[in-house]
Amino acid sequence: MNTNTPTQPVSQMSVRPAPAPTRMEHLEKIVTIGGRALVALLFILAGVVKVLNPTPFLEHMAQFGVPTFLLPAVIALELGAGLATLIGWRVRDAAGALAIFCVMTAVIFHHQLWINAERTLFFKDLAIAGGLLVMAAGDAARARTKRAFVNFAA
Fold it and tell me: Which of 34, 41, 44, 119 could form a disulfide with 82 if both were Cys (CB 3.0 to 4.6 A apart)?
């Protein structure tokens, strides 16, 4: 008699529960959510301000030769991608879109690098874009790991 084979079918065998998250994993989750919220609020509040008082933004866009009909798209991007980032929905896509937006904003509006304030804004926009790209990459890596685990466990 072979004692190495289970007496129950594989589908009825008990599966050990996943171990409880460590303190570090718990802290990592809190910091990730908090960081995402801080970055998201930057864009959400910018979108709300543009909705409430679009005139200075329309004038600024016209001054730099950017078609003003794009303002609703900018507002939709800031609010939509900002909210998606805040709630953790499609973070890779939202953060990636906002990163591209930040690079374009830096190049179009803050290209006068010989002016101290413009240089600061240029590099600030690039830094935000870099953080958003890290956020997008981290979300993509977490999704791959989760898929690999689910496929392995199945």
Answer: 44
